[in-house]
Task: inverse folding
């Protein structure tokens, strides 16, 4: 396998992982479960749940780790969320929600044990320096059953790639709101709490493309350390298939 093939397979798996975990994070069922767990605002449940692995951190620290959210709103959601049951317990609730989501909607996907096995090898091989959310989730115990474990593994890998990308964006000089506008545009920017007017960052488009390339290449380096060439291709195929299964199974 050439370096180009490895980067392509890594990018394919990265996109599948990101989108599969987003299905869980953004699904109305997940929001309803957060409300049922005591979070009147499900977004506060999300922020406290995802950020809870950082421990009893300040809102400003959590906003820095989340990177691409408007910080004032993120701080408010964090404080609202941790008031319910604290940080560590919020993370545990969210982790169990992810496991249950996998059990419900990934159970008939191909190769779940293999997704977990290969993904865990990548998680083990990846360093945690400058990747606080990845470091926190890497330390969380995984479920024993394959559907739950596979989605949790994808969750952790999503934090790995996201953290690498945030670092690349920071070095590029692209602001978080500019990154949103260069990626998915104003609707996405608003979803992350940013107020109008939105700077479009058009003069930094080339930098954004380079940051994406740097992220893909760094991830490919880590995949190359953890997996054989055929395994990298297999992981890309299985995660893409898992995303298709998940999308087909979740209620609309």
Result:
């Amino acid at each position: 396998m050439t370096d180009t093939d490895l980067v392509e397979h890594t990018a394919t798996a990265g996109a599948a992982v990101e989108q599969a975990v987003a299905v869980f994070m953004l699904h109305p069922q997940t929001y309803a479960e957060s409300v049922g767990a005591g979070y009147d605002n499900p977004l506060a449940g999300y922020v406290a749940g995802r950020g809870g692995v950082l421990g009893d951190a300040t809102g400003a620290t959590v906003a820095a780790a989340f990177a691409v959210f408007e910080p004032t709103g993120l701080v408010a959601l964090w404080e609202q969320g941790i008031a319910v049951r604290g940080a560590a317990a919020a993370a545990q609730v969210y982790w169990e929600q992810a496991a249950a989501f996998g059990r419900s909607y990934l159970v008939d996907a191909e190769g779940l044990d293999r997704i977990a096995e290969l993904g865990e090898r990548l998680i083990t091989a990846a360093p945690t320096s400058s990747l606080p959310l990845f470091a926190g989730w890497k330390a969380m115990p995984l479920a024993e059953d394959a559907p739950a474990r596979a989605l949790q593994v994808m969750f952790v890998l999503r934090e790995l790639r996201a953290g690498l990308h945030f670092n690349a964006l920071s070095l590029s000089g692209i602001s978080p709101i500019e990154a949103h506008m260069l990626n998915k545009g104003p609707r996405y920017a608003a979803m992350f709490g940013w107020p109008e007017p939105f700077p479009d960052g058009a003069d930094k488009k080339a930098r954004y493309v380079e940051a994406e390339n740097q992220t893909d290449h760094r991830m490919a380096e880590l995949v190359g350390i953890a997996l054989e060439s055929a395994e990298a291709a297999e992981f890309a195929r299985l995660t893409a298939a898992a995303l298709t299964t998940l999308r087909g199974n979740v209620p609309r």
Summary: The two ends are 39 Å apart (CA to CA). The chain has a mean pLDDT of 97. The CA atoms of residues 47 and 78 lie 6 Å apart. Residues 3-249 form one domain.
